[in-house]
Amino acid sequence: METKSQNKRxxxxxxxxxxxxxxxxxxxxxxxxxxxxxxxxxxxxxxKKSFLPVNDRVKLIKESIKELDNVEVDSFEGLTxxxxxxxxxxxxxxxxxxxxxxxYELQLCQTNAAIxxxxxxxxxxxxxxxxxxxxxxxxxxxDFGTDVSKFVPKSVVEYLQKQKKGN
Length: 167
What we know:
Elements: H1 4-7, E1 10-15, H2 22-34, E2 37-43, H3 54-64, E3 71-76, H4 80-86, E4 91-96, H5 99-115, E5 120-125, H6 135-143, H7 154-166
C-alpha cells in the first residue's frame, strides 16, 4: 500500500545557485505551486571554483524561501538524476532565461530520460524582467562593488556586503 508521502508529487530544482538570484526564486515560487514538494538541491561541484561556500548558499536560500512551506533546501554531489531517484522525485525543474539556455537544457533532459525514463523534466521560463540575470553576472558586479539588490534576495545582498567589509 502506498503511503501519503509516496503519493506526493515531488520535484527537484537542481543548480549551483552561486548565488541564488531573483530569477531562480521566480522559477522556484511557480514550481512550488505546481508540486506538493520541491527540493531546491544545491550542487557541490568540487571540480569548479565556487563564489560562495555550499553551506552558505544553502543558508541564504533557506532565508530567501521562508514563506514557501512546501520547499526544502538540500545539497548533493554526483548526478542530479541519481539524487532525484534517492529522494523519490519524478520531476526535475529547469529554469530557462533565453533560447540560448534551451539547447544545453534539452541535451541534459534527454540524457536524464535515457537514464531514468520515469523522471520528467519541466522547463519554466523566468519572467522577462529576470531574463538577463545570472549568477555569473551577479558575481562580476559584486566583485566590482556594484549594488546587486535588484538581482538577488535581501539575504544575499547582506551576505555580500558583510564579505566586502571582511576583506
